[in-house]
Amino acid sequence: MQKTVFITGATAGFGKAMAERYAREGWKLVLTGRRQERLDELKEALAPAPVHTLNFDVRDRASCREAVGSLPAEFAAIDVLVNNAGLALGIEPAQDCDLDEWECMVDTNIKGLLYITRAILPGMVERDRGHVVNLGSVAGTYPYPGGNTYGGTKAFVNQFSKNLLADLLGTRLRVTNIEPGLCETEFSVVRFRGDKSKADTVYQGTEPIRPEDIAEAVYWATTLPAHVNINSMEIMPVDQAFAPFAINRR
Questions:
Q1: Could you give the residue ranges of the DSSP H alpha helices within the chain?
Q2: Catalytic status, residue 203
Q3: How many whole angstroms separate alpha carbon 44 and alpha carbon 42?
Q4: How confident is residue 37, by pLDDT bands cut at 50, 70 and 90?
Q5: Which is catalytic among the residues 22, 115, 150, 219?
Q6: To 10 degrees, what angle do helices 13-24 and 211-222 make?
Q7: Kind and range of the H or E run holding 30
Q8: Beta strands 173-180; 232-235: pairing state
Q9: Residue range 208-234, pLDDT digits in tens
Q10: Top-tier CATH class for 4-235
């Protein structure tokens, strides 16, 4: 049986790499994003893989419900949901942050994930099969200066994933939280509000993980035998590790 994967935020970075990975294996793909032109380009690039695109903003609750409800019959039975849409904005300390940017991160990283999950999950439960993959971050576990709200949203993703798995006990559904570390995508360009030169300094002198690395991990987790669940997976480059506790000496 040809399976179907639903990927949010599929027009760049992790989402695009995952779309390419699943397409190579002959899956049907539902790809979402806010940039229709990129969705069109991706659909053409993935041909002849069966692709259905949805152009909407995951922050809009009604749009999420309508988009999922509009799926053609051949794409409606979702086997794997990848909640990939997310972003970080700014690196300033909490006392200097822009509240609009905080709200944007909460609306995208938390509410958007909730809206899409709630729209798709009942069908998975009814069919008694499915896998929800949430894109968290090591920032949800390990704090760093300027990570305030972004880290908080990813801590939510971690806890929600665990609670979701508890709710689904007794079904054959699976839930996985993927937690990437330093990875070079458009992530830092967005975080630094389009300043690519500033974003490039984040990766200077390192060999970060690539979107294809995360795509491979997600594909692996979702194609294991049906009785196996990967609860969570931290993935960092060799060039990244844990810092000592910060101490302010007066």
A1: 13-24, 36-46, 61-69, 73-76, 99-105, 113-127, 148-167, 187-191, 196-203, 211-222
A2: no
A3: 5
A4: very high
A5: 150
A6: 50
A7: strand 28-33
A8: parallel
A9: 999 999 999 999 999 999 999 999 999
A10: alpha beta
Q: Which amino acid is at 20?
A: E
How far is Cα 30 from Cα 116, in angstroms, rounded to an integer?
Answer: 13
pLDDT over 70, % of the chain: 98
Residue entry with tokens 């590790």 = 241
pLDDT tens digit string along 2-28?
A: 999 999 999 999 999 999 999 999 999
Q: Which two tokens stand for residue 217?
A: 């991990």
Q: What's the one-letter identity of residue 46?
A: L
27, 52, 247 from 250: Cα distances, Å: 59, 59, 10
Q: Which residues fall within 8 angstroms of residue 71, CB to CB, at 6 or more apart?
A: 30, 52
Angle at 141 between CA 11 and CA 57, to 5 degrees: 25
Q: Using CA atoms, how far apart are residues 22 and 222, in angstroms rounded to an integer?
A: 10
DSSP-derived letter for residue 169 is B
Going from N- to C-terminal start, the domains of the chain cover 4-235
- Flag the least confident range among 65-74, 89-98, 152-161, 178-187: 178-187
Q: Do residues 17 and 84 touch, judged by C-beta distance below 8 A?
A: no
- For residue 1, the model assigns a pLDDT of 81
Beta bridge partners of 177: 134, 232
Q: Which residue has the tokens 């999922």?
A: 68
Query: Is 190 within 8 Å of 88 (Cβ atoms)?
Result: yes
pLDDT at 131: 98
pLDDT reading at 245 higher than 90: no
Whole-angstrom distance, CA of residue 51 vs CA of residue 242? 40
